[in-house]
């Protein structure tokens, strides 16, 4: 399941694997666990387990994209998709700044130029749908800053990860008809 999830996550990119069908002929079973049982499903989700379900119309699909990191409420570490996209962003920034900034003279590379490089890459992250607008960050990020002190350049920014929708609770009130004439 983990190998299938990794491959599907890489192929899905920003979209994720929740409720997506796997190219698999079937799934194994664990003694005492029934993915059709609401209680077993809830226990597995609370435990942070990644599992698939057989669909009555055929095929198998992922129920969630959880990792086993269920120790805290960090939404990044609890989602395969969020970890993948976060890693892609971090590695992209590291690569870009390593290629474009490291080794340059401070006479040629200012904090302002580096901030422009950062904002251009953040624009690309939003175009790729890795980050998205939030009420507090319309561009998908906020508080970008670059501090250059001697030979050390520090980059800081808060990005708004474009995560997945996992649940859609619906509240519906039903009442009887009342008429007067």
Short description:
The chain has four helices and five strands, in the order H-E-H-E-E-H-H-E-E. It is an alpha+beta fold.
Strand order of the largest sheet: 1-3-2
Distance between the termini: 63 Å
Given the structure, what is the number of helices? 4
Gyration radius, to the nearest Å?
A: 22 Å
Total number of beta strands: 5
Task: Please tell me the overall pLDDT.
Answer: 91
H and E order: HEHEEHHEE
Strand content: 5-15%
Helix and strand content put the structural class at alpha+beta
Looking at the structure, what is the overall shape?
extended
Q: What about the largest sheet?
A: 3 strands, antiparallel
Helix content: 25-40%
Low-confidence region ranges: none
Throw out a few tags for this protein.
two-stranded antiparallel ribbon, alpha+beta, 5 strands, single chain, three-stranded antiparallel beta sheet, 181 residues
Describe the protein.
The structure is a single chain. With 181 residues, the chain is an alpha+beta fold. The chain is 32% helix and 14% strand. It is built from four helices and five strands; from the N terminus they run αβαββααββ. It has helices spanning 2-12, 38-46, 80-100, 111-127; strands at 21-22, 52-54, 60-62, 141-149, 152-159. It has a three-stranded antiparallel beta sheet with strand order 1-3-2, with helices on one face. A hairpin with a 2-residue loop joins strand 4 (141-149) and strand 5 (152-159). Helix 3 (80-100) packs antiparallel against helix 4 (111-127).
């Amino acid at each position: 399941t983990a190998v299938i999830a990794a491959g599907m996550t890489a192929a899905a990119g920003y979209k994720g694997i929740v409720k997506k069908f796997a190219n698999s002929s079937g799934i194994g079973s664990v003694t005492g666990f029934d993915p059709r049982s609401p209680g077993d499903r809830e226990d597995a989700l609370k435990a942070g387990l990644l599992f698939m379900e057989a669909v009555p119309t055929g095929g198998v699909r992922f129920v969630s994209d959880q990792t086993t990191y269920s120790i805290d409420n960090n939404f990044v570490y609890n989602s395969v998709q969020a970890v993948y996209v976060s890693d892609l962003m971090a590695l992209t920034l590291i690569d870009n700044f390593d290629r474009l900034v490291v080794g340059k003279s401070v006479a040629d590379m200012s904090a302002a130029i580096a901030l422009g490089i950062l904002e251009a890459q953040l624009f690309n992250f939003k175009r790729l749908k890795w980050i998205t607008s939030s009420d507090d960050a319309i561009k998908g990020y906020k508080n970008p800053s670059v501090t250059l002190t001697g030979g050390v350049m520090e980059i800081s920014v808060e990005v708004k990860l474009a995560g997945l929708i996992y649940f859609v609770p619906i509240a519906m009130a039903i009442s009887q008809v009342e008429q007067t004439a």
